[in-house]
Give the backbone structure.
Amino acid sequence: MPDIGMIELILIGLIGFLVLGPERLPEFLGQIAKIVKQGRGWVNSLKKQLEYEKHTLSQPLQDATQDVNISLTDTKKDIEESLKDMTDATVVEKKDK
């Protein structure tokens, strides 16, 4: 969005004054202010809705991540136990020969 400085605002006001006249300019500016206020309200409402959705979705995602971590830890333990058992069995077989 372009930055509007004081000179640009004065120029826009002067052009508005010349085009609309002193009678209609305050009404026009009031309408513009009302539209800007509505737009800001919509943006704030959208931000609140997005924050709510983010919060709503983040908790199940954290729970799922925790479940996956627990499952991976259990699988790692099972694999380590299987490897230990296989190693022990191999050592016993070598001793028997």
